[in-house]
Amino acid sequence: MDEAVAAGGATMPAHPSRGAIFDAVRADRTGPVGVRLLQLAHDEDPFVRREVMDLLHGLAHYGPWPGAAEVALARLGDADEQVRRGAARLVVRAGRKDVALNALDELTDPVVRTVLADSLGGSVSHLRNDPLASVRFLANLETLRAAPREQWPALDTALLADAREAARHLEGVGRRWGSVLFRLERERHTYALAARLLGASSTSDIGAGLAREACHGWRAAAVELLPLLVRHRGQVVGTAMAEALTTASISEAAMRTHGALAATVPFTPYPRVRRSGGSPPPSFGSSSAAALLAARPVGIGRLAHAPAIFGALLDAGPLTFRQAAQLYNLTFRWPGRMQAGCAPLWLRHAGPAVLPRLLALMTPHLGDYAVGEYYLEGLARMGRHALPALPAVTALIDRRTRIPANDSTQDAEMMLDERLLAAALDARRAIDADTAAQPTARPSGPR
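Given the sequence above, the corresponding structure tokens read:
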């Protein structure tokens, strides 16, 4: 274990030594591996001490660990700043909030005090008059999360007064602030605050972080803030500003509106990667499609190129009973991409009488970031028949906030929402165009 920690392998995901250490310590924290790990926290090599803090932080996830908390407390005064930071996080992670609060009162190191306050979260809301700006900022931010509206102006003023000084020891001031404002649904205030912060060179990085967080949360943010980001970029585009500009460039609405302006700024636009449908589907005739289906079971659950296969058969005439049973299973057995692609085909086969059932299957999945695009494409292929689903499509388009998603980064999650929005707009255009082309098909509705 000593060699694995010293070489760095013990903190590498999926490294065998890391798995072995975690298995041993989870089985018995008082065993030889756990005891040796705590001893290594006092190694002469600062790299080893950093690695141990990382390992202990991960292992503390499995429940309070008094021994790890004691080790972390002893390293709060370490000569290495990264070790001190890791130790401050570990004290709280290992289940000793009381010890962390006491240390916060007794210590003077601004780095350690800031990390302790950050790790303690809501437990520091009473420290709004702390002598350290970063601690005050965190305390006011925690207070703002649950404060009534009448307290917002005073808290806003306090946060604004401390933001620049707090950023000396606290990373992501703008991001943290923006996240709280998003949860409070304070959209217009966020834009105004971003403009104020961006307008001063001493707070422009904070403003860029706030603007970026706003773009992650609200669809209109990039349209509102991209011109401000360009205007206040400075002589040299720093990291925070470049990241904010890249994030804003994800918004298709922002780039349509301000693309020419953005082109005047040196930054890297977010890559426009659309979902690929792969190579074009093979062409099927009715005979080859029928032969392929004959070799598949009736209870089939998946079928590559199903739209092309059944489309060829439907173009030639009605499906056989067996083929219809196969299409039924593909359409109704499981939600997902297959269902979305086969639903328009079942409509072609069974006629408009099945439309309510199909739309009841499809509309709940329109906002699903994993498969929503496929369902929206299915509605687009249904054309005018999908008119009853138009309110659900429009509701997706009219959202002010992003669709909740789970991806590797917030930028990637924002891109997923942009792709859903683009697919929804395409679906609405297709439904409207097909309805306009055949106005007599529009249902009269209740009188």
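The mean pLDDT is 94. Try to locate this feature in the token string yourself.
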